[in-house]
Amino acid sequence: MKRLLYIFLIVFVLGSILQCSSNCYAANSSFKYENKYNKSISYMEENYNPGVSYTSGEWSVLALARSGKLSEDKKGKYINALKEYVKSNNSDKISNARATDNARVIIALSSLNENPMDFNGYNLINPLNDYDFVTYQGISGPVWALIAMNSKNYSFSGENVSREKLIEFILDYQSDSGLFTFDKKSEDVDVTAMCLQALSPYKGNSDVNNAIEKALNALSQKQSSKGAFGYGSSINCESTSQVIIALCALGINPETDSRFIKNNKSVVDGLLLFYRDDGSFSHMENGSVNAMATEQGVLALISLRRQYYKLDYIYNMVNVDVYDNYDNLEEEKHVENSANNKNTYGYTGNDSGKYLTADVNNDINNVAGVALGNENNNNDLSSKTSAKTSDEKNVPFVLITISVIAFIYANTRKYHNENI
User: Fold this and answer.
1) Do 389 and 199 contact (CB within 8 A), yes or no?
2) Cβ contact 317:110 at 8 Å
């Protein structure tokens, strides 16, 4: 009878410990800023009715779509508004002077799994095949054209434009300090962060990687003692948000990379200076709600969350049509990473050249960085924090389990020997 009791105790204790291990890990594996994230998404759901616009438009579509919270009603209204817009324009161009408008719309449509090459009878990608049109704005056009075209692996078909040409155009706007410029003179944090986002898939190329590292070091020097970024001595939400999105694009953890921690404040701490209790963001610290700041602040939170849960980088939407359940993070993570491992983000079409090497597909697949296991370890402080892998977290439970079983087994043997 006692022997059966010991056996029962072994099973009970082992089951309890394993259950505890599972629960304890689950309790510690949620996104650190989940409550703030949920409040921000709810704020956008309640206050944003996306139209065709650079504010309260496509960026809010992207934010709600990438968080899985864009209602069918709001999606339908946006699609209808865009249909009316292109019909009234009677052109593939959203704007006659800004390639960024087409790029922004392409990104939004990609997040909705809509086809920008045949939208209400118009090919919204076609204007990006014109090099002169794309570069007319200066640096912004090529940056966002690359991000848009890479969002779902679209191919350029114009004879005078290619990814290689746009990359070279962007690299030509980097100053000696490492920052990128508006006009080859005026250095800018926001522009630098956006350039890094556009260049991130090509970091396998030595020229691009050198430019990226130079820009990261320059950005680090521009970070304030509060962790945030801005212009001169003035910090703001938008600049800080763009830096976070850029770091996530490069597979760098914005919370733990030593280059982006000042006075024990990370760039994420800097972002939260602009977070408001209702989930919105302000442009300046302690300021009032600002629509553009809220959109960019929320996109930064989404980028952080997607990085944490090992999901595709926010502008990588090749796999958008593969899943539709954003509430089941484990399922989404499995589907996205499986798709990435199948190399679904490889370039096709007329794209070739020195920046598109044999390794570029792997670089693009790993554009999520930390999300796919490529975190920059050289400058990472995570080893000094309480963050641990699941295996590390389970080590104590394994040791306890072995100890308990050994103790019970010893007593079982003692009982058996005493009763032979």
Assistant:
1) no
2) yes
Task: Compute the Cα dihedral for 276, 46, 193, 197 and give only its sign.
Answer: positive
CA distances, 127 to each of 46, 97, 404 (Å): 34, 11, 69
> Whole-angstrom distance between the N-terminal and C-terminal Cα of the chain?
14
Per residue in 141-162, pLDDT (tens digit) is 999 999 999 999 999 998 889 9
Q: What is the pTM of this model?
A: 0.77
Q: What is the dihedral of CA 146, 103, 50, 120, to 10 degrees?
A: -130
CB 111 within 8 A of CB 92: no
Contact 203, 215 (CB under 8 A): no
Higher-confidence position of 17 and 192: 192
CA 162/CA 167 separation, integer angstroms: 9
pLDDT at 159 (0 to 100)? 84
What single letter denotes the amino acid at residue 145? A
Amino acid at 211: A
Share of the chain above pLDDT 90, in %: 67
pLDDT of 31 > 50? The answer is yes
CB-based burial of residue 117 (10 Å sphere; 0-12 exposed, 13-18 middle, 19+ buried)?
middle
